[in-house]
Specification:
Radius of gyration: 18 Å
Structural class: alpha/beta
Number of strands: 11
Oligomer: single chain
Distance between the termini: 23 Å
Largest sheet: 6 strands, parallel
Order of helices and strands: EHEEHHHHEHEEEEHEHEEH
Strand order of the largest sheet: 5-4-1-9-10-11
């Protein structure tokens, strides 16, 4: 399968970071780390209770110091470094585990915990500590810095680049995602439409499993390193100019 592959797009979701100790998006009872999604991840929530929303992301940002990339993150970083063709890693996760493992060809479509966004002028900057409501923007001085997270109802980042990469892909791989949140849930259908091979790696079949040519079920920390070894051991495509 790998001998004719040049371009790969990989989508990762909460399942890949769960093995590092980061809670998945929806836990028991539909709660996200003890909170309803509607209370911490919508523009209405931010307007209604900015203290709760900011504190929620402050705690999640601080928790990153207690976790490390796992074998799946490291395997994808190795693929990024050694795959001589085109590769794009698109993550729905807002943690920094892919970067810490070494991935570079990477898009955070739902934003990043370690980034702040100005709601007044759209200035974006790295941010590593707490982010109290009313923090002034260094670009426009408005007291409007917020977590750089794509809330429900907002448009994910860099969709044009993601869609272009999928249209050009020979292989689309989904890892650790439920297949229930759009637009990411529709990526596999686009990939199938343009003729790409599709592979899913997950603990359980996703909501979109029927659209994948192949599904491999099990922990990402076991499946992903084995798959990367398979890819790098069998393919030697030429990197495009």
């Amino acid at each position: 399968m790998t001998s004719d592959l040049r371009s790969i797009v990989i989508l990762t979701g909460a399942g890949i970071s769960a093995e590092s100790g980061i809670a998945t998006f929806r836990g028991p009872g539909g709660l996200w780390e003890g909170h309803r999604v509607e209370d911490v991840c919508t523009p209405h929530a931010l307007a209604a209770d900015p203290d709760l929303v900011h504190r929620f992301y402050d705690l999640r940002r601080a928790a990153l110091a207690t976790v490390e990339p796992n074998a799946a993150h490291h395997a994808l970083a190795r693929l990024d470094a050694e795959w001589p063709g085109d590769l794009l890693l698109v993550t729905q996760n807002v943690d920094d585990l892919h970067e810490r493992a070494g991935s570079r060809r990477l898009i955070h479509m739902h934003g990043e915990l370690k980034s702040a966004l100005c709601a007044a002028c759209d200035h974006r900057q790295p941010h590593h500590g707490d982010l109290p409501p009313g923090t002034p923007c260094p670009a426009c001085t408005a007291p409007a810095l917020r977590p750089d997270i794509v809330f429900f109802g907002e448009i994910p980042y860099r969709m044009d680049a993601i869609e272009t990469a999928i249209r050009d892909a020979d292989l689309f791989v989904s890892i650790g995602t439920s297949g229930a949140v759009y637009p990411a849930a529709g990526f596999v259908q686009t990939a199938r439409y343009v003729g790409a091979r599709t592979l899913e790696m997950n603990l359980d079949p996703s909501a979109g499993s029927i659209f994948f040519h192949e599904s491999r079920m099990g922990p990402a920390g076991e499946l992903v390193p084995a798959w990367v070894e398979e890819m790098l051991g069998a393919a030697t495509p030429a990197r495009s100019c």
